[in-house]
Specification:
seven-stranded mixed β-sheet; about 425 residues; globular; about 15% strand; five-stranded mixed β-sheet
Length: about 425
């Protein structure tokens, strides 16, 4: 098992921009226990088992034949969502749409709060754009202040602005009125993008989306995900909504048959499974609250408020996220997202995907054993002298082990840790140099 575990964790050394795929991890793990995935932010309750059975029955047909045109699939999706097809462009995942937005609509600069989804910083930098990064304050739980962000955009002279709502990795949600105020103040920019990829999981507001407003504005795009919401990352499909002119520019640039037959099949199944989908979202929202409650009881762990299907946590002082990730995977079969490669974050942070209670119990048990050496009620074990860990040794020294936190403690730390990406050019961008 140790050899297999070493093979698995070695994949993280060769994949610096993102976590290795679940398929790659499974191949490396071999015959080990199944991996419990707290890394990939999928909906665990949708599609239903019956829907998967139906997809399985049609597998040969789906794989054998070409899909319909993107226009046909988009029209069906719009009939389900109540949207005008002229305002929608569907892509082979949100990353494809981000790529075309960058190529077609972003000129010399783009402003974005960090930490956030990596493609909003990496994609424009890859095409030579200036990326103006607005650090979200750790002292305020990474919450975005719209007025401060607008001031930052003005001071930098950015021509495009992007916000993710809820934000990834922290799950912070800006209320609808706050988003609309931001759009009003930035209506002179070339483009403003509101990435709502995880908004379906939010329950703080009855309808926080600005999709209906985007179609009436000259410079606004709303990006939505289907793979995350429907628990089907592997299918790769998402869509954007904008006024007909903007949506049409992106739609005209997309490759023919950019949507696959699995995406088409799922879209055409949605009408008859709306109730199951809505129920799945309620289950995720319930699980999120229960997961936050359990994590908040771990000593020294800071848990930030979230409206996504994931929870952002800061590890106790003295704990190394990369080492913790490896230990959880090797010793407990639990895969987590360590955020050291996210601009604006560090290896002291994890993003943990919301999962059902039995899985959360396994995660919490693994965190207790790895961080403290035993369930936290028995006290921690001493910190080893080096990173050469052995199973069972704790990552958190006894002197730094505080008492239990309140059950719903979401208090942010008193100050932000200095951020260093390891890349001087990125550090200068983050610092506004």
């Amino acid at each position: 098992m140790a050899e297999a575990g070493s093979n698995v964790t070695e994949l993280f050394r060769t994949s610096t921009a993102h976590s290795p795929s679940y398929a790659a991890l499974s191949r490396a793990a071999g015959d080990r226990q199944p991996i419990i995935d707290f890394c990939i932010p999928c909906n665990p309750y949708f599609p239903t088992p019956e829907m998967f059975d139906a997809l399985g029955d049609r597998l040969r047909e789906i794989l054998t034949y070409y899909p319909s045109s993107a226009d046909t699939i988009t029209a069906e999706l719009c009939s389900v969502l109540g949207l005008n097809p002229q305002t929608v462009a569907m892509g082979n995942g949100s990353t494809e749409l981000i790529t075309w937005i960058d190529h077609l609509l972003v000129r010399e600069s783009l402003a974005v709060p960090v930490p956030t989804f990596g493609r909003w910083t990496d994609q424009p930098m890859e095409t030579g754009k200036r990326v103006d990064m607005f650090p979200l304050p750790e002292s305020h739980g990474f919450a975005l202040d719209p007025a401060s962000f607008v001031d930052f955009v003005r001071s930098r002279g950015s021509r495009t602005a992007v916000i993710c709502n809820p934000n990834n990795p922290d799950g912070g949600l800006l209320p609808r009125h706050g988003v609309l105020a931001l759009l009003d103040q930035l209506q002179d920019l070339d483009l403003v993008v509101v990435d709502e990829s995880f908004l379906e999981f939010a329950d703080a507001e009855a309808d926080a989306s600005v999709v209906g407003d985007a179609v009436l504005r000259p410079n606004t795009i709303v990006l939505r995900s289907l793979g995350k919401n429907f628990g089907l990352h592997g299918v790769r499909f998402g869509y954007l909504v904008a006024n007909p002119g903007l949506a049409g520019r992106v739609r005209a640039a997309l490759p023919k048959w950019n949507l696959n037959s699995f995406a088409e099949t799922v879209v055409f199944m949605l009408k008859e499974h709306r109730l199951e989908y809505a129920h799945s979202l309620r289950l995720v929202q319930r699980d999120r609250q229960e997961m936050i409650w359990h994590l908040s009881r771990l000593p020294g762990l800071t848990v930030y408020p979230s409206q996504g299907n994931f929870v952002y946590v800061r590890l106790p002082e003295g704990a190394d996220g990369a080492l913790l990730r490896d230990r959880l995977l090797e010793e407990h079969g639990v895969l987590v997202r360590e955020c050291g490669n996210k601009i604006g974050s560090s290896s002291r942070y994890l993003r943990l995907v919301v999962r059902p209670q039995p899985d959360v119990q396994r995660l919490v048990a693994g965190l207790e054993q790895t961080l403290y050496g035993a369930p936290h009620t028995t006290g921690p074990a001493p910190l080893p002298d080096s990173r050469a860990q052995v199973p069972g040794q704790a990552l958190v020294p006894a002197a730094r082990h505080p008492g239990p936190m309140p059950m719903h403690a979401h208090a942010a730390p008193a100050h932000a840790l200095p951020y260093a990406s390891g890349t001087a050019a990125v550090d200068r961008l983050v610092q506004g140099a």
